Amino acid sequence: MPRRGLCDLVARAVAASPVTLVCAPAGCGKTLLLAEWMCTRTRDVVWVSLDHDDDTAERFLASLRFAIGECGPGRRELVRPGRFAPPGDVASTVAELVETIEALPGELVVVLDNVQELPGQDVVRVLASLIRHQPRNLRLVLAARSDPLLPLARLRVQGRLSELRADALRFGPVEARELLERSGVVLTEDQLRRLVAQTDGWAAGLRLAARSLRAAGDPERLLPHFADDDRATADFLTGEVLAQLPGDSREILAMVSVSDQVTPRLAASLSGRDDAGAVLAGLEREGVLVTAVEGEQPWYQLHPMLRTYLRAELTRRQPDLVTALHHRAARWFAGQNRPREALQHAERTGDERAAADLLHDRGLDVLLDGRPGLVLRGLTAAGTTVARDPWLLLFSALAHLQLGELSTAESDIARSARVWPAGPDERLAAFRRLVVSAHALACGRAPVPGADGACSSPAMEAWARLDRGVALLVAGDHRDAAHELAAAGRLSDEQDLHYLTVHTTTAHALLAAATGDHRAVAEASELALTLAGRGTWGRAPWLAVCHAMLGFVRLLRCDLRGALACAAALAGVEPRALRFAGAVLEGVARFDSGDRVIGLRLLQDSRAALSGAPLPPPLAASVMMLEHQCALDLAQTAHARDVAEWGTRRLGRAAEAHVIVARTQLARGDLQGADRAVRAAREPGGPALAAGTDVELDLLDAATALRLGCRTRARDRLEEALARAVPVGLIRPFTHADPEVKKLLLDQMGGFGDSEALATRIRAAVAGPGTATAVTLTGRERAVLTHLTSPQRLDEVASQLRVSVNTVKTHVRAIYAKLGVNNRRAAVVAARELGLG
pLDDT tens digit string along 488-502? Predict the structure, then answer.
């Protein structure tokens, strides 16, 4: 299979440096790559395959001279041995060879394959001498499984060395698919992704997998087990990798294979060998499919196929030892405050008591970090212990709650009550109240009141502050709610509790909705959903709230595709009010995209199906405003009147009820009645509940003024509407405004100052429905992005912005997700291309 991109990379490396090192473990395709690259050159390339027979300086030089002499006519005599230097004088022979090569016409490229085979210091010294006195017309290409004992560091500093490592030779999905299809194997996208992950793009692994998959015929059956069951794979790993190692190294590799990654101390704990870390470091240098992972302390990982094979062999031969090793790993990770890894190993021990004990110690931290699946697997490992333990049953309830499985969570809460101890400690009582309160909120009910209780950990305290903040929010105490939510967010950031961070961010969005800060609603909802995209709890009930709030903002931004995506995310969720919100989003999006009759009927049917079920006032206000406008646009006056009556019964004297009156009076031509309704909506007793209400009031005021002949007042109101709409990017109120107001906006284009950019987008939306919005960053994200353009560390950025470094990391992750990048430089480039910074 040709790898033209890699051949070009080799060509550039050889052109750039006198010495090129292609270094990667066995089976990465070094020899085939260099052979293919040689075929792209017409002349002056010499290939020397080294082996243990080249065990003296004289033999090595003889192989080199012979290869050079064979590469072109007239060169055999030039490099004849002993032509000038006496036999046995190695230094003189090297000098003679250097002078001879220097005298050759044109460039000469010498490829030395299997450099790791060079035995003894004498041969290495000869090669080092040749590099030290390398003629200008000589290019050396060294292929090796591990770094040769040459002055590589000096060559790097001198700029004389180009390097291609295993990362460059690794197969990505595109190349892997081509390799497999050339081998007669066709996989689905998911199967291909899993195979590339299993093999880590290793050429030999993919080729062996292709051989086995072609023979098996059923990829889905073979894929999970081919690395540990396939005979050809076992033979290759045994013959080409493990057979070259001393027995103690093979034993250490087998012991550490039970863990995906190990530190030197963990390796020593697993193997019982104090030098295990040094052995792993040596194997990594020698290219034995052992990789050092970057970090504050050294971590090592085996190649996935090697790890799978060794783990399977150890399980077949010494299953009791495997169990003991998982026990050791679980204890070690628990002692290092790494509960996720500790639980993973405890799960594999088969020891119910060990799994239960570890859950007691670390289960809550893992849950609040957003790992419900891991806790549920740990509970499965704990077996029969769970049914008798209220702590474990409540852990199960919280895990199912995070996954959106509300009925299962409720069942677990009830089971915990049946085994409740006669005298529970304060921690257990406080924990149960928090779980019950969270379940009530997920079901659309008020949080469960109670005393603060005992906080057994910082994670528990963060959750308790969040619960108090939400309870205060529901009670209408917005100031104290903001204080508690800020404290919960700070504690979540400090502890790096990702799930709790998302939950707290959602609560901030709800608080913003309650206080009418719809820009903050959109920013907090987007941030929560962006962060949640990294977790396994996309169906968590708190995120459904974010989808609903953000969906309505996207509608008002005329982002119909985004609104429909939010509607799809609300299908089948609990409680009922959120499913209704999803139906409304779909109905309005379809109406605005041109399916007007179908969209309006969907709105009417979903409202009828809701019947008298309770709705949060902001949701009821948004529904009334949107459906009423749709009905008016289709001249469905009876429908519009029905919506108005429905909303007024639910909202009373809210500003939105007056907006409906103003619209109706304006449609009838009653300008004085419309003006009175607008003024009533602005009175302190009728606060706006829905996003865009204040903007619509300005537009209605402008329409009334135009019809009364007050053009200056109309322009002032239009400018106020634009200024209010800019922070959230609201467009829809303008696209559904009175035709005379739209005409005024178009006439005044170019004169709206800071609002001109939004006015331009509104003009485009008026011209055609369904415009999509660009990437939007929050104000804090823009501030962080500005600092990313400098070489500052994140802790320095945090200091300047006066926030914690974990808060900065949270915003950086959100920026990366929104821009579709995974590093700092790419984020800056993408932001500039999008005009964001």
Answer: 999 988 888 888 898
